[in-house]
Amino acid sequence: MPADETKEGHRKRLRERFLYAGLDGFHDYEVVELLLTLGSPRRDCKAQAKEALRRFKTL
Fold first, then answer.
1. In Å, how far from its chain's centre is CA 30?
2. Across the chain, how many H-helices and E-strands are there?
3. Hey, CA dihedral for 3, 57, 52, 34, is it positive or negative?
4. Tally of CA atoms within 13 A in the half-sphere of 53 that contains its CB
5. Separation CA 50–CA 6 (nearest Å)
6. Contact predicate 37/14, CB 8 Å
7. The pTM is what?
8. Most buried in the list 21, 32, 35, 36, measured by CB within 10 Å?
9. pLDDT of 1-59, one tens digit each?
10. Contact present, 29 and 48 (Cβ < 8 Å)
11. Which residues lie below 8 Å from residue 11, measured CB to CB, with a gap of 6+?
12. What's the CA angle centered on 27, arms 21 and 29, to 5 degrees?
């Protein structure tokens, strides 16, 4: 699957996973990414989430 297709709907899938099961099964970077998406409309937040965890080491 091309990268553009996997990015399309990513926020929606992330939000749906959270609404269905809470944070169970989420990687730490996905928790941070979910929070970042709330304040960053139309922006890919995965890289920022991973960088924040790399820098600060923990949630």
1. 4
2. 4, 0
3. positive
4. 16
5. 18
6. yes
7. 0.78
8. 32
9. 555 556 788 999 999 999 999 999 999 999 999 999 998 877 889 999 999 999 999 88
10. no
11. 37
12. 120
Which of 5, 11, 56 is closest to 37 using CA atoms?
A: 11
Tokens describing residue 40: 């960053």
- Count of other CB atoms within 10 angstroms of residue 53: 17
Assign 44 to helix, strand or coil: coil
- d(C-alpha 4, C-alpha 22), whole Å: 27
| Residue of 59, 8, 18 lying closest to 38 (CA atoms) | 18
